[in-house]
Amino acid sequence: MALTPIDSNTRSRGLLRSVDWVTVFLYLALVTLGWMSVCGASYDFEQGFNFLDFSTRSGMQIVWIGTSMLLGAFILMTDDRLIESASYFLHLFMLVLLVVTPFVARDIKGSLSWIKVGPFSLQPAEFAKFTTALCVAKVMNSYGFSMAHWRDFLLCVAIIVIPMGLIVMQKETGSALVYASFFLMLYREGMPGGILFAAVSAVVYFVVGVRFADEPIWEGAPASLGTALVLSLSHLFTVMLVRAYTPDHKVAARILWYGLGAEALALLFCRYVIPFDVTWVMLAVCSATILSLIWLALRQQLLRYLYIALFAMGSLAFFYSANYVLNDVMQPHQQTRIRVLLGLEDDPRGAGYNVIQAKIAIGSGGLRGKGFLNGTQTKLKYVPEQDTDFIFCTVGEEEGFLGCATVLCLFLALILRLIYLAERQPYTFGRVYGYCVVSVFLFHVFINVGMVLGLTPVIGIPLPFFSYGGASLWGFSIPLFVMLRIDAGRSRMQH
């Protein structure tokens, strides 16, 4: 069928009708509240308040907001087919830039991720998330692609992991971890849930193993509580996978009850008869479970049993390497932050200082807050990085619990709206790209707010639309407006 010619005026009116203005409104609301928070965090009692003074943080943030809106308008006027066509080129260019960055960047607090461009500094890692999302979406939209094919799946993983590794080389671990959020999109597109379950299990093993590594099961017991808990969790998680992914549910029941019975008897014998390291019995139970799964895989010729056995073996290997990773792989400041988060160390003047001051600031705001520009913790500069990574404490102090709840509800509304936009896309490219944007926003909000509240490690990632800086604001605005443009073009064909 031939396409009906459309003049420029009709195209403009059609674009205005097609743009999702609900998302635009949410964006403007978050950007406005973000600017107010930057004003509150950077306000100086002596200099007063003049938001048109571009020598101040609040004045410069207006510049970044204005340029972000201009970029957004430009993106909306660009053909979405051109954006899709340029996906590979943009990602390749960004990978080259990531390779070059450590050699030309200035050392800022140990990070080699900022490039000086005239009077400004840009962080390529912020924009690499956008190009990675485009590249993954383009690959998954190609003819014959299927998540069921391991070659296609591993190609997507490589596209995600390569920029992640390059950013780690810039000593920006926090920015690199953001790329792990793309696996939420892969799960939506058909990645086996067992892979996501394995990743979550690894985090649980690490936290439990490190947190309780030096605590005995009971006073005087030779066994470590952390080791016993991880071995029990490994056994339990293995049973859950057998129950979920294999046809014979009786197998899972037998593995569970036999294993629990052996562990319970060993604990009772150790407690009341002869003290010994009961973790050896638990390790034997796990080993027996692995061998039984391998035997079932051979007997029934069902590879799922073998995959679950590999999960169990990987669980043990990961746990026993956790302390090595913490003590010998991670940097000293990363080790300290994790130990402080888990309550293993108390460092109120060092690694724990930021979080302690942020909690004080948020708590002092009460229900309604102290009012705009009336905060004390932030005005007296008690909170380091209070207008960038820890800007949420300014919201809590000045706007109180109600302000924090409002901001989080706006983020929730934006994320839900983006999910809605992604789901209504007629093509894989738009849907995959939309879920990539959703994953990145969700990760940033969850980790940043959790970091300020002391619930997640301090890894130094910004809060979207709130943290000060052009690189941050552009890095979130560009992907959002690209999604709006893709959504606006979904019905451009007129028959």
| Overall pLDDT level | 85
Rg estimate, integer Å: 26 Å
Oligomer: single chain
Give me the secondary-structure category: mainly alpha
Largest sheet: 3 strands, antiparallel
List the helices and strands in order. HHHHHEEEHHHHHHHHHHHHHH
What does the model show?
By secondary structure, this protein is mostly helical. Helices cover 68% and strands 3% of the residues. It is built from 19 helices and three strands. Strands 1-2-3 form a three-stranded antiparallel β-sheet, with helices on one face.
Layout of secondary structure:
Blueprint: H1 8-18, H2 21-42, H3 57-77, H4 80-85, H5 87-104, E1 106-108, E2 111-117, E3 120-122, H6 124-140, H7 150-169, H8 173-177, H9 182-188, H10 193-211, H11 225-245, H12 249-272, H13 279-300, H14 303-329, H15 332-341, H16 353-364, H17 392-423, H18 428-452, H19 470-488
Antiparallel strand pairs: 1-2, 2-3
